[in-house]
Amino acid sequence: MRLAQHMSVASERVRSIVIEATEFPDLARAYRVMGVPKVVINDRVQFEGAVPEADFLGAVLRAVEAA
Fold it and tell me: What domains lie within the chain, and their CATH numbers?
């Protein structure tokens, strides 16, 4: 969550939205949240759990390439 928000501050091309899964159960079900943090990038790349910054950046780049 923090890394996504830092990226959105650093670049106007990045937006991040952070939600509390227990407060939005319909959204959590729609994205099949089983663990937190759950990261969804452009509805193309998803992963759960904390990952190193390099892996996070790699996931962002994969999502952009798939667009």
Answer: 2-66 (3.40.30.10)
